[in-house]
Amino acid sequence: MTEPVFPTLAGLGWSVKRAPVWKTRTQQAISGKETRLADWSYPAWRWELTFDFLRADPVAAEFQALAGFFNARQGAFGTFLYIDADDNAVTGQAIGTGDGATASFQLVRAFGGFIEPVLAPNVVSAVTLAGVAQAPSAYSVDSTTGLLTFTVAPVSGAAVAADFTYWFRCRFAEDTLDFEKFMATLYRAQKLAFVSLK
């Protein structure tokens, strides 16, 4: 089953907030000394969108589209795919190095020098081994995990790289979404928050 994609609506306003979210456990001794434990190896991401207007007329039906999309996910229960306008594609991304035995490699992206797995690839347009383009029949990509699997394991020392676009698999942060009607057939949503999933 194909996951639904967050709708593109004309009323998206400024600003769009985006934040990395980490999970750290901290224990403080009586002396004040702290011990910290990082529970996650990479962050989840949180977005907050504002819709300045959502037309409710029968032609545009943006209010109905967003409310219907939210309700179809049952609030924070269901998942969807989101494409971030500034973080959605990589070119020549290093994925790994062959060892002659490993056939599967996790798609990743470098974001400011930090490497994160890509769990919802969209289109893989090129895969190279030691700089040589591979035919699409030489590999497959799992769209639910981002795992790139070759039919034959790359030889030892062969650099694996790929060009691809990707989504973020997300869920809404809350089970409610407030809409404000401010004019005939016009609504706004001041805060729509959602988080990426691991």
Instruction: Categorize the overall geometry.
Output: flat
Strand content: over 45%
Q: Using only CA atoms, what is the Rg? A: 21 Å
Helix-and-strand structural type: mainly beta
What's the structural domain tally? 2
The number of distinct helices, counting runs of at least 4 residues, comes to 1
- Got a strand count? 17
Helix content: under 10%
- Quick one: biggest sheet? 6 strands, antiparallel
Through-space gap between termini: 19 Å
The succession of helices and strands, N to C, reads: EEEEHEEEEEEEEEEEEE
What does this structure look like?
The chain is mainly β. It folds into 2 domains: 17-83 and 170-196, no CATH class; 89-166, no CATH class. The protein has 1 helix and 17 strands. The chain has one helix spanning 62-72; strands spanning 17-21, 24-28, 34-38, 44-55, 79-82, 89-97, 104-106, 108-111, 114-117, 121-129, 132-133, 139-142, 147-150, 159-166, 168-172, 180-183, 186-196. Strands 1, 4, 5, 15, 16 and 17 form a 6-stranded antiparallel beta sheet that branches. A 4-stranded antiparallel beta sheet has the order 6-14-10-11, with no helix packed on it. A hairpin with a 2-residue loop joins strand 10 and strand 11. The relative contact order is 0.24.
